[in-house]
Amino acid sequence: MNHENGWDNESRDSFQLVPRQTVGNKLARRRSVPFFCKSFAALLFVSITLFYIISNSRTPLTNEHEWENFLHISAKPRCKIPIIPLFSETYNNSADRDDVPTINHCGNGSKFTKFLNESTLVLMNPDLYYRNSCSVFEIQRAPILLNDTFSVRDCGTFNHDNRVNHIDSEHVIVSCLSATGESHFDYQSQVILSRGTLASKINYWKKTPKNKLPVSVMILVLDSTSATDAFRHLSGTMKYLIEELNFVQFSRFHALGEPTFLNAMPLLTGIPTHEFFKTKKWTERWDETEFIWDYFNRSYFATAYMEDLPHLGTFNYGGQLGFGKQPTDFYPRSLFSAWESLDGNMDKCLGKSSFWKYLYDYEFEILRSLNGVAPSFTMPWICWPFHDSFGTLYNIEQETLEFFKKIHNATNILENTVLVVMGDHGFYGGEYANSHEGLLERRLPLFLVRIPQRLKELIPNVEFTVRHNSKEIITHYDVYKTLRHLAQLPLDEQKDASDSVNSESVAGLGTSLFHWIPKGRLCKDAGIPMQWCVCNLPEPTGHARGFFGSTTVPKSVLLKPTPPYVSRQP
C-alpha cells in the first residue's frame, strides 16, 4: 500500500460500475431485466454480509474510527486511518506488560484539615493527634527570577478551637504526630479570590449578568496518552464522556512529534517548536513568549496552568529556567516543588491524596469558586504515573470518572464551560511502543471536546460543525486557534464574530474547530510532518490488508529520532 499522505500529488480515478452497452431488440432487453435484478440482489446480499462480518470483527470501544476506513465501494479516499486494536496479540504478548509497576493510590484521599474560608484552616478529628503536635507551614512561590525555589513560613500550631487563622498563602502543608507516634502530612490548597490580579478580574465582571459572562474553558491534558490507550484503560470514563456528557471524539487528531515539547508549543503558542530555537537559547526564561493564557488574561479570564511533577515540567525540564513571573493566576508549582524537596517519596503522594486526585480536587474547586463570578481558562496537565510507566493509565480511572461526574452534577459549570480531554502524543517507551500498533498509537493522541448548551444557543451550528470536523485531520494548531477564538469573543459578540475567527489577526497554522474544515483535509494542509502522518499507513489488523500481530514493521511506519534540542524533553 502506498503511503499517500498528501505529500505527493498522486491520485487515483474513482472506480465506477458502468453497464455494458449491447445491441439487441426490445425483447432481449426485457429478458435481461430479471438477470440484472438477480445480480443486484446478489451483490446487495454479499455487501450486507461483508458489512456484518467486518462490523462484528471490530474490537468494542475502539475510537469511533469511520466505516469509510473499511468500505470504499466507489472511490479510494484521500486519507484512510488504520484501525488500532485495543488488545492485539502484539499488545497482549508485549514484555512491557510483565513490568507494569504497582502504583500507590495514597489511601482513600481523605484529609484531616480543611479551609473554612479564605485564610482559616481547621483541624478535623483532633483527638487522633497529640495536642499541639500539628504545625502548619505556608508554601509561597519565590520572588521573581527564582523559579524553582519556594519559601516556607511557620504559621504555628492550631489554637484551642483547632484553627489556624490569617493564612496568606494558597498552599499549606500540615504536619501532625498521631497518637500511635506516626507522622502524618496533609496538603491543602485554597482558592483566594480577593487578592492580586484575580481580584481585579472579578471586579471587571462585577456588573455583568451571569448569563452575559463569556464561556469558560477547561483543558485536561493526560500526558503520553493515545486515543487507543484511553479507550483501553479508561473505558468507563470514555463511555461516560461520550454517552452521558455528549463529548465529541476526534478520531484523526495527530501528534506533531515527540516528545511533549513538539506538541506543547503549537498547542500553547500556535508556533512550531523549531521556530523558537532559531533565536532563543534552551536556558532562557519563557516570560517574553506569548502563550494562550496571556490572551485569556487580557480578556479578564481567571487562568490556571497546573503540572504535577516539577522535574518533568514542560518549561523546566533539562536545565530550562521556566518562568520568572508567575504566568497564570493559579500555578501550584511551588507546592509540588516543596513536596519534591521536603517530602519527596517514591509513592508520589500529597499526604493521603494521589497527584491526580489532588489536581482534580483543586481544579474543581477553582471552577466552583469562579462559576458565575468570572470566566476561566484552566489547564491541569497530569503526568504521573503513565508518563513513565507503560500500562498504568488505568490507575486514574476512578478519580477521573468521579471528577467528571462532579462537573455533570454542577449544571452551571457544565453548561458554561467548554470541556476538552486530550493527550499530547502516545506512550513511546518500551517494546510495544516500537511495534506496528505502538508506532501508530504514538501518532494519534486522545482528543474529545464538549460544547456547552449556552455556546450552542449562541452559535446554532457549532455542534454540527464540530462533529463534521471530528472526522477530519486536526492537530494542536487547530486546538490553539479554537482557544484564541474563545479568548477573543465576549459572550454577547460570539455569534457575530464567529465569521472572523481565522482573520489575519490570528495568523499561522490551524483552523478553529468552530469553523468548517473542508472534507478530505491532508496532513500537509494541517502542518503535520510527513513521518508523523498516519494517512494510508498499513493496517496492523487481522483483515486481509494486514497481518495481525506481525513482528515486521513496514518502513513507512517507523519514526525517525527526535531532534537533539528536544531529546531531553518529556
Helix count, DSSP H or I runs of 4 or more residues: 18
Q: Provide the gyration radius in Å.
A: 27 Å
Question: Strand pairing plus helix content: what structural class?
Answer: alpha+beta
Question: Portion of residues in helices?
Answer: 25-40%
Lateral strand order in the biggest sheet: 9-15-14-8-13-10
Instruction: Please state the overall shape, judged from the principal axes of the Cα atoms.
Output: globular
Note the main sheet: 6 strands, mixed
Summarize the structure in words.
There is one protein chain. The chain contains 18 helices and 15 strands. It is α+β, with helices and mostly antiparallel strands. A six-stranded mixed β-sheet has the order 9-15-14-8-13-10, with helices on both faces. It has helices at 26-57, 89-92, 196-204, 227-233, 235-244, 261-269, 273-276, 292-298, 333-342, 355-370, 397-409, 411-414, 436-443, 453-458, 462-469, 476-488, 494-497, 523-526; strands at 113-117, 120-123, 135-141, 150-157, 163-164, 171-177, 183-189, 216-222, 248-249, 302-307, 349-350, 353-354, 376-382, 417-422, 447-450. The chain starts with 25 loop residues before the first helix and ends in a 44-residue tail after the last helix.
